[in-house]
Specification:
heterodimer; A: about 350 residues; mainly alpha; B: about 290 residues; two-stranded antiparallel sheet; 2 strands
């Protein structure tokens, strides 16, 4: 028994509703946070911050956004990248056009704008469902990308639609170093992750799951299905919008509308498939997987085969492996890496016995 | 006026091509309830295989038959490795599996045959005809004729043969079909292979027009609004939807596009489909779902 819960009694509802019910989990999470805030900035180098940690965090946030909509509320969306684009461009414009607006305020306004746009594209969900809804999210995907490439006003008349990051300053502290950008991203992700956990374990989360499992039944027990669905679209798009702004400003520093195309939407969908639908932790695992796996794969092939495969071919193989992984996960582990983690915990709980 | 008619007919004929891709979708959706996102990749795979065989000196019909066999093997692999393990799972899971599948098929096609653009010559020269003062592309007319022939063939297959009756039974109720002794897995195999065949025809026509290249697999994105408008379960719907989408997107591009900045062809079909759905949530010819608790 490496990991036991015996002797930890819950005597109050308040305690029962905590995020981490076990002492070990609370300690582990506190240790993880302390490590991420105190140790990582001290030991990390630029490569780790810029190429791995920041994209993993941002993609986790985007996955979280889509997971709220698809994993919890059951509305399939192929337009995630569109809402990321709205978030990025809106944040940029708020920062550009309102004098002296703090960065955090423009970030939140950008997220809210994305939420509003998400709400509009969620409206068809009141009337149509299932696969027919894909068309609404794809309409969002193509329409938003078209708007940002066609109207240069959004990119401050830059001819190619490229926007660049505003100075990353919060309360007079400059955060444009890699470690600073990492800390900013981490803080936003931790705050929004906590918020998401609160939402899904609360009343709204229960309503989402009821609608996901069977919307007719949910309506019968008195849940307002339209309101619940629209809130899912709005909150999911808010998360995606913030993720898009972070993607543009703390990860890349500059972005063009093409950076938020359909393949980005698919990437985010794959994060939640591999990580686990309807799980908060799954988004982080899925994002880490999707960022690290190609790096690992290309390192492996260069070290093992010493460049015998040309890069174009490598990309094809990568595609095939990703596709195969998606199918493998859907067949063998439909609840994703989050379920694998649950299994590991269960094993540790009963170790050295098997059951 | 004649310019308007020219744009309209051009659009309608382009719509025929969308219908061809959409028909492959409908077949699979009807028989196995799978919303097959990989149909576009199958079009790419088929066209690329065909053109590469022709380039390597295989005769036209030889390449055609070999490609058909390849598509049948692909269908068998899909049935065996993807559909069978996922039987009885939710439609959304199956859809996501076909997303993964589209990655595999695209990667495979390009890994085997390379990623360069191939020109495909199928012996139709593209000189425009003039009919009542309207210029009609000969190639488009040919494509429309092929599509018409294909639909007639599928009509015979599905209405007059045992396979077709079995297929309609499965589309109606899978469990009941199993209960009366229909071999579901064999039927899936046939349907996916037929979808591969439709994909080959679509791929050859598209490829002859724009060259065989990666963008063929993106036709799936044009076929989606076609399906939405027509309804997932109806071949007639796929054709009517294709005509509507083709005509409206060309008209919109030519007449509305210049007013708001151009390049609206990408999203116009989707917005149109969305408006359509608000009026008829199951598409023009789709089955109305009745829900009970």
């Amino acid at each position: 028994m490496l990991y036991k819960e015996a002797g930890q009694f819950i005597t109050e509802y308040r305690l029962d509703k905590r995020f981490f019910r076990l002492k070990q989990e609370r300690w582990a999470f506190a240790a993880l946070l302390a490590f991420a805030y105190l140790v990582v900035p001290a030991i990390g180098n630029d490569y780790w911050f810029s190429a791995i940690l920041i994209p993993v965090l941002v993609l986790s946030l985007a996955g979280l956004g889509l997971n709220l909509l698809t994993g919890y509320a059951g509305q399939l969306s192929l337009g995630s990248a569109a809402f990321m684009a709205v978030g990025a461009f809106a944040t940029y414009n708020f920062h550009l056009r309102i004098e002296g607006l703090p960065l955090i305020a423009s970030l939140i306004l950008g997220g809210l704008t994305a939420g509003g746009v998400g709400l509009v594209f969620g409206l068809p969900s009141l009337r149509i469902k299932g696969f027919y809804l894909i068309v609404a999210t794809l309409a969002a995907q193509f329409f938003v990308q078209w708007v940002f490439t066609t109207f240069s006003w959004f990119s401050n008349n830059s001819s190619s639609g490229v926007i660049t990051a505003p100075p990353l300053q919060i309360l007079g502290t400059d955060l444009s170093t890699p470690a600073g950008r990492y800390l900013l991203t981490l803080t936003v992700v931790v705050a929004l992750g906590w918020l998401a956990k609160t939402i899904v374990s609360g009343e709204l989360g229960r309503k989402w799951m009821a609608v996901r499992d069977m919307d007719t039944a949910a309506a019968v027990i008195g849940i307002s299905v339209p309101k619940t669905k629209l809130l899912a679209f709005a909150i999911s798009s808010f998360y995606l919008g913030i993720a898009g702004a972070l993607w543009a400003f703390t990860y890349l520093g500059t972005v063009e509308p093409h950076g938020f195309d359909l393949s980005r939407s698919f990437q985010i969908l794959f994060i939640i498939i591999i990580g686990g639908m309807g799980s908060i932790l799954g988004n982080f695992l899925g994002a880490a997987f999707i960022v690290l796996f190609p790096i690992l794969l290309s390192n492996l092939t260069t070290s093992l085969l010493a460049g015998a495969i040309d890069p174009g071919q490598l990309e094809n193989f990568q595609k095939m492996i990703f596709g195969a992984l998606i199918i493998f996960f859907l067949i063998k582990e439909p609840n994703g890496l989050a379920k694998v983690w649950q299994t590991v915990k269960q094993r540790l709980r009963v170790w050295p016995l098997r059951f | 006026m004649s310019f308007f008619l020219e744009v309209l007919t051009g659009g309608l004929l382009a719509g025929v091509m969308y219908s061809l891709v959409a028909i492959g979708f409908v077949l699979i959706y009807k028989a196995s309830g799978v919303f097959n996102f990989a149909q576009g990749s199958m079009v790419l795979f088929a066209a690329l295989t065909f053109v590469s065989l022709v380039e390597r000196g295989v005769s036209f019909w030889g390449a055609f038959v070999l490609t058909l066999l390849t598509m049948a093997v692909l269908a068998w692999l899909i049935e065996w490795l993807v559909l069978r393990p996922l039987v009885n799972r939710s439609p959304i899971t199956l859809f996501m599996a076909t997303l993964g599948l589209s990655y595999i098929v695209e990667g495979l096609a390009q890994a085997v045959w390379g990623a360069q653009v191939h020109a495909l010559e199928i012996g139709i020269n593209d000189e425009p005809y003039e009919v009542f003062g309207i210029l009609l592309s000969q190639f488009d007319l040919f494509a429309a004729a092929i599509a018409g022939g294909l639909v007639a063939l599928l009509g015979v297959l599905f209405n007059k043969t045992r396979i077709g009756i079995a297929l309609r039974a499965v589309a109606d109720d899978q469990l009941a079909a199993l209960a009366v002794g229909i071999h579901l897995q064999r039927l899936w195999l046939i349907v996916w292979a037929v979808a591969g065949f439709v994909g080959l025809v679509a791929g050859m026509l598209w490829g002859a027009r724009v060259g065989v290249q990666f963008s063929l697999s993106l036709i799936v994105l044009k076929a989606l609004p076609v399906l939405i408008i027509g309804g997932f379960t109806s071949i007639e719907g796929a054709i009517v939807g294709g005509l509507i989408v083709g005509a409206s997107e060309k008209l919109a591009e030519v007449f509305i596009g210049p007013l708001i900045g151009g390049g609206i062809e990408n999203w116009f079909p989707y917005v149109l489909a969305m408006l359509f759905l608000l009026v008829r949530p199951y598409g023009l010819f789709g089955d109305k779902a009745i829900e009970r608790v």
